[in-house]
């Protein structure tokens, strides 16, 4: 009988630790990339768009693991399957901007039952509130947060699966869809809606520039920016009874899908507090009905830690504050919990590569020109007046 070498206690614990890390990685991938994430109706829309370009469904579906039965009814694709479809579309069309193309080609019916609810809302503002609230029914891989700032409503978009493949393509699809909702629902021209992206423009952006809403890059924020005056625009297909019925179905569908908000989104929803300060991990854990140790463990399993989330939340608030030229950098530092302006500036350089003053001077002048144009547009803006002179073709 062959002698088997015994592991020392240290070697045993090392092997056990490695096994746990491997299993944790598998679990993260399974929960984040292989969960039922994206409505199959968007895949059907992609197939229709590619068919108009002469591509067969078989070619697009090859190697994705998506079967014909998965494209029917209320079924969903995993993040990985959605990424595989987008990758095939890019490869077969040689168009890395296919996310933009999908957003531009999307009709309200692509949004399924949520699209029906959007069309049943009375105003654009009510429809956007519905879009944000029930976005997880369409995709749980992104989170939308609505915030009012000055004369604008900002819809901030956060990627909850940033390590998954084809995320820029998926993000461009969602951003473009969101930016087009106003014109689609009201049938009014809305030229002052803006799209902001965090990073520099990709090489394929010029091919889409003239078809997109006004788009700004290198802003360190990802959002759709909508003038507040647009929010009262009437939706001609409004139906309060149908909307109530649709909302009831949304809650039933959410329960059926098991689509609760992910932990990261639940933590981010608690920041900042009403007094503009940021909660500690003990306070957040209590609000989520768990111990701080459990919260740390769960966040670690998702590849993030509590300090990162606080930093991200503070960064988003600081970026918006810096664009408010009525506030000094010292005032912003005090408001956001920094000991002085120098500490804020160091953090800001880490986020953006430039000082707050440089960032403010680069973007504020552009925003002021945009704001002036928006105010000129809104001086005579009302749903009735716009209906006579601002309809989209």
Task: Give me the secondary-structure topology.
Blueprint: H1 9-32, E1 36-39, H2 40-52, H3 57-61, E2 76-78, H4 79-93, H5 98-105, H6 112-120, H7 124-133, E3 142-149, E4 152-159, H8 167-186, E5 194-196, E6 214-216, E7 223-227, H9 240-257, H10 263-268, H11 281-287, H12 292-301, H13 306-322, H14 329-335, H15 341-352, H16 356-378, H17 383-389
Parallel strand pairs: 5-6
Antiparallel strand pairs: 1-2, 3-4, 4-7, 5-7
Helix pairs in contact: 5-8, 6-7, 6-9, 11-12
User: Biggest sheet: strands, sense, closure?
Assistant: 5 strands, mixed
Structural class by helix and strand composition: alpha+beta
Counting structural domains, the number is 2
Helix content: 40-55%
Classify the fold: give the CATH topology of the largest domain: H-NOX domain
General form: globular
Number of helices: 17
Order of helices and strands: HEHHEHHHHEEHEEEHHHHHHHHH
Major β-sheet strand ordering: 3-4-7-5-6
Q: Nearest-angstrom radius of gyration?
A: 23 Å
Distance between the termini: 85 Å
Low-confidence stretches: 1-7, 15-34, 373-393
Question: Beta-strand percentage?
Answer: 5-15%
The CATH H-level superfamily of the largest domain is H-NOX domain
Describe the structure.
- The protein has helices at residues 9-32, 40-52, 57-61, 79-93, 98-105, 112-120, 124-133, 167-186, 240-257, 263-268, 281-287, 292-301, 306-322, 329-335, 341-352, 356-378, 383-389; strands at 36-39, 76-78, 142-149, 152-159, 194-196, 214-216, 223-227.
- The strands form two sheets. It has a five-stranded mixed sheet, with helices on one face. Strands 1-2 form a two-stranded antiparallel ribbon.
- The longest helix has 24 residues, at 9-32.
- Mean pLDDT is 81; it is low at 1-7, 15-34 and 373-393.
- The relative contact order is 0.10.
- The chain has two domains: 36-247, Alpha-Beta Complex (H-NOX domain), CATH 3.90.1520; 261-363, Homeodomain-like (Arc Repressor Mutant, subunit A, Orthogonal Bundle), CATH 1.10.10.60.
- Strand 3 and strand 4 (152-159) form a beta hairpin.
- It is 54% helix and 9% strand.
């Amino acid at each position: 009988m062959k002698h088997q070498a015994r592991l020392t206690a240290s070697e045993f614990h090392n092997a056990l630790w490695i096994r746990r890390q491997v299993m944790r990685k598998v679990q993260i991938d399974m929960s984040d990339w292989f969960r039922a994430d994206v409505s199959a109706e968007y895949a059907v829309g992609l197939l229709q768009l590619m068919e108009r370009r002469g591509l067969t469904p078989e070619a697009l579906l090859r190697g994705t693991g998506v079967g014909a039965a998965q494209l029917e009814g209320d079924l969903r694709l995993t993040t990985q399957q959605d990424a595989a479809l987008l990758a095939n579309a890019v490869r077969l069309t040689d168009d890395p901007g296919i996310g933009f193309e999908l957003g531009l080609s999307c009709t309200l019916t692509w949004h399924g039952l949520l699209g029906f609810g959007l069309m049943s809302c009375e105003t654009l503002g009510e429809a956007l509130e519905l879009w944000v609230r029930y976005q997880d029914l369409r995709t749980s891989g992104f989170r939308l947060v609505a915030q009012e700032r000055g004369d604008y409503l900002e819809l901030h978009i956060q990627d909850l699966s940033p390590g998954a493949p084809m995320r820029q393509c998926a993000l461009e699809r969602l951003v473009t869809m969101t930016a087009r909702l106003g014109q689609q629902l009201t049938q009014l021209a809305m030229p002052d809606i803006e799209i902001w992206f965090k990073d520099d423009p990709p090489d394929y952006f010029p091919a889409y520039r003239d078809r997109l809403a006004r788009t700004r890059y290198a802003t360190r924020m990802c959002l759709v920016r909508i003038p507040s005056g647009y929010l009262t625009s009437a939706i001609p297909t409004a139906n309060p009874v149908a909307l109530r019925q649709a909302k009831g179905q949304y809650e039933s569908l959410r329960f059926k899908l098991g689509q609760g908000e992910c932990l990261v989104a639940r933590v981010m929803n608690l920041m900042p507090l009403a007094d503009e300060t940021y909660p500690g991990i003990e306070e957040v854990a209590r609000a989520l009905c768990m111990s701080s140790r459990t919260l740390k463990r769960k966040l670690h399993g998702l590849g993030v830690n509590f300090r990162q989330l606080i930093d991200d939340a503070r960064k988003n608030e600081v970026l918006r504050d810096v664009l408010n030229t009525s506030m000094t950098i010292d005032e912003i530092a005090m408001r956001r919990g920094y000991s002085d302006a120098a500490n804020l500036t160091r953090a800001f350089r880490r986020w953006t590569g430039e000082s707050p003053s440089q960032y403010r001077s680069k973007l504020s002048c552009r925003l002021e020109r945009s704001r002036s144009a928006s105010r000129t547009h809104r001086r005579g803006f009302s749903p009735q007046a716009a209906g006579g002179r601002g309809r989209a073709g």
